[in-house]
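My hope is that you will study the protein record below before we discuss the fold together.
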Amino acid sequence: VKSLETPVRRELAHFGVVYIQAPPERFIERFRDIERFESGPGIPQIGRLSVVPQLQDLASLTLPVEDVEALQTCRPGDCDMKLSAAAMSRFRNQVNWSSPNAARDANEVAREMILELVRTYQANGNDALGHYDDDGDPLPVAEEFRALLPRSDLLPAPVPALIAYLEDYPRGRPAGAEDFFYWSVVDFGLKPTVRVNHVIIYPLAARPSGVSHVIAIKQLYASHYYHTTLELRVLVDAERRANRRGLYLLSITR
């Protein structure tokens, strides 16, 4: 793993590579089962959304206790979670914070809001991502995400159609590409963070430089720390070793 230089001070970027003794097709098959693939000590909660997202897909999502407590006092410019002013108002108005069922109600509102975010994004693309009003001036998420796209030259193989789709979604899906959405609670030692991601798996039939697939993981929402995130995973078909076909997995996270 290597840190990369970035033109913007607030941006972090890392590159990593590992050899996996399995064919790319097997990796893709396992990755599609994202709930099993990512579950572990650092991801205590995870769920994949249906092709047509339903509220039931989020039934197991429970906000961290500290987030429920923070929501009670959230105001624009002063909130411990990344939310828009409208979202803060919704938690204030739809949750009876003096009730013993306040945590349950807050979780219901959070699930509804995530479902609405994904459905609106599926219809309208990046413009549906809104903005965060938790600290200082409003921060438009779509603009932050677009700032990650120009440096597509970091990719080992040119995939301009995928980069264009990330910007223009839901228009212009590349031939053969597939999408899915999932949510997770990530616990990496700081505050547990709720994340919502859009995944695009893009197979390259011509396999330039041995690249069989590129996976893009586009963050639509994070409750803490991240304005936006783009991760690109590149699968490079490697030579056979000990009569087994392998791959190099390259990861660029920004």
In short: Residues 155 and 252 are 8 Å apart (CA to CA). The first strand starts at residue 2 and ends at 3. The helical segments are 24-32, 34-38, 65-71, 85-94, 102-124, 141-146, 160-168. Residues 102-124 form the longest helix (23 residues).
